[in-house]
Design goal:
single chain; mainly alpha; 22 helices; 69% helix; 0% strand; globular
Length: 432
């Protein structure tokens, strides 16, 4: 708790110092550290649309999981509950404070985990301090979109899973599923194939857990939590005919297959008219490969559901695009499996180098740009240097544990490795 509070106070102090010493014209609209307001992030709903519609807007949202909008909905209540219009600036300012607390909590997780591994609070403080000073972490904690929310919830899920595998206490397994539920509402990484794995996980965790009288109660709670995790993707399927938790998913699918709708002109042999902007649709591009137009318009009930609530990117146009692009990607995967595999490997040539770039360069940020150590830090934790650090950590672990110890660790923490892969897959194939 101390680490979390000190970290939170540190970030709030840095924010106040930067605002006090920076010319107002260098701050976006005089108060933001980066260009984008939370009210205009592509993942978020507009406050002016969400407020009069009510909480149902959060359920009807299809463009992205609604976790951050749940927080923003609560943060606009001081004005809206008093009969005033929502104030986007006030909501942003409050969100900075919320994210400062999340920043502190994430640092506390780093402290707790390293202290657990090393049995030393000093090493824990060092790890938390390094993570707190990371320019990339500071950027995410002052970026008014879902990244920091997903970072803290995913960090909690990893930590609680580790604690369960180490102690076999069933309460940690339930804490893992709670953190995963929050993460699934913050970031679109839960897909339908994960359901099978989570069901296996619940059964496996029940068998692995200490034989306590309350074990069945914890397992029942885990089943309920899995149902809650998949309530949103099931809603997406029922209302919008997609298992993806984001209707940007169609763009992600064709992106990883390198099917770019604007790369190929509309083929005249198909008897189709080129779009007015002169670019081909994804149907036309797939038609070049397959010789047929393979997608149709979505059913009217899907469009009707999309029309129930519109705000920013949360529109029926996005639902139409998602339906069309997912259908085209699925058809291409079925008809051209070898080409699809080649495209997936080609995507790795884009996403892996992107993963090795410093997080702090994602966007301009006044705080990050003022850090005197940023250049050295970004150089050390990017490119071949970060691979070298990881390789050294693995080599040191092998040296200390020997191969027999590594095999023992692999068996005990296999679920931790599998969970890491499940988180990694949507990232390394997120070429869009």
């Amino acid at each position: 708790m101390t680490v979390a509070l000190v970290s939170t106070a540190f970030l709030l102090a840095i924010e106040a110092l930067v605002r006090a010493t920076t010319a107002p014209e260098l701050l976006a609209e005089g108060y933001r550290f980066q260009a984008w307001s939370s009210n205009w992030m592509m993942q978020n709903l507009g406050l002016e649309d969400m407020a009069p519609f009510g909480p149902l807007a959060l359920w009807l949202k299809h463009a992205y999981p609604p976790g951050l909008d749940v927080i923003r909905y609560a943060l606009m209540m001081p004005e809206w509950g008093s009969g005033l219009d929502p104030d986007p600036v006030a909501v942003d300012e409050r969100l900075y404070i919320v994210y400062a607390f999340l920043y502190g909590i994430t640092n506390a997780i780093a402290f707790a985990w390293v202290r657990d591994l090393t049995k030393s609070w000093r090493w824990g403080v060092l790890a938390a301090s390094l993570w707190a000073l990371s320019p990339g972490h500071i950027l995410l904690a002052t970026l008014l979109e879902p990244s920091e929310l997903s970072l803290v919830s995913v960090s909690f899920s990893f930590y609680f899973l580790y604690r369960f595998l180490k102690t076999r206490r069933p309460g940690y397994a339930s804490a893992f599923f709670i953190a995963l539920l929050v993460a699934s509402w913050a970031r679109s990484f839960i897909q339908i194939y994960v359901l099978v794995i989570l069901v296996v996980a619940v059964i496996s965790f029940h068998i692995m857990a200490n034989k306590t009288s309350r074990r069945w109660g914890w397992t029942l709670l885990n089943v309920v939590l899995i149902a809650l995790i998949f309530a949103y993707p099931v809603k997406q399927f029922v209302m919008f005919d997609t298992w993806s938790t984001t209707t940007f998913g169609g763009y992600h699918r064709v992106g990883m297959l390198h099917l770019e709708p604007r790369d190929v002109e509309s083929p005249s042999a198909q008897g189709t008219n080129a779009p007015s902007d002169g670019w081909a649709s994804i149907e036309d591009q797939v038609a070049v490969a397959s010789g047929t137009i393979i997608v149709s318009e979505p059913a009217q009930d899907i469009i009707d559901n999309a029309l129930r609530f519109s705000s920013r990117f949360n529109t029926q146009e996005l639902v139409r695009d998602n339906y069309r692009l997912e259908a085209a990607a699925n058809q291409y995967l079925r008809n051209y499996p070898l080409e699809s595999i080649q495209a997936l490997f080609k995507s790795l040539g884009i996403t892996i180098p992107e993963m090795l770039r410093p997080t702090s360069i994602y966007t301009n940020n006044v705080i990050v740009e003022s850090l005197p150590y940023r250049g050295v830090w970004d150089w050390l934790v990017s490119g071949w240097r970060v691979l070298l650090i990881l390789a050294a950590a693995v080599a040191l672990t092998v040296y200390q544990r020997r191969w027999s110890g590594i095999v023992q660790l692999s068996r005990r923490y296999a679920w931790l490795g599998l969970y890491f892969v499940l988180i990694l897959l949507p990232i390394i194939w997120s070429n869009r």
